[in-house]
Amino acid sequence: WEIFDDTLDITYDVKSDNVSGKSGSDKYINIAIIEKGLKTKVEKGDNAGKTLLNDNVTRLFFAHDLKTSKGLLRVPLKAMKPGPGKQLILFVQEKSSRKILGASSSLFSK
Hints:
- By secondary structure, this protein is mainly β.
- Helices cover 0% and strands 55% of the residues.
- It is globular and about 55 Å long.
């Protein structure tokens, strides 16, 4: 992956014979950027005065029809920057069953 301006470019190569070239593809390719090690100070409610640790918080999610087994995805980052505790997750999912067919991850830091 590479970042140009405010866009994340991801080159992918899905090992599957079942990728359709039709616009009505039965698969998505999903991109998520998550962050670990976040802290939330709680001011009200049952947990008032406590600091809670939050892991695997989804900061950005992008889904696209999987029309070809190889390609380039251009994901708008909306000012999201790489950094410590961030991870990039890519997964292929069937639209009809929502079954996850494969996944990959990478640190999202530079």
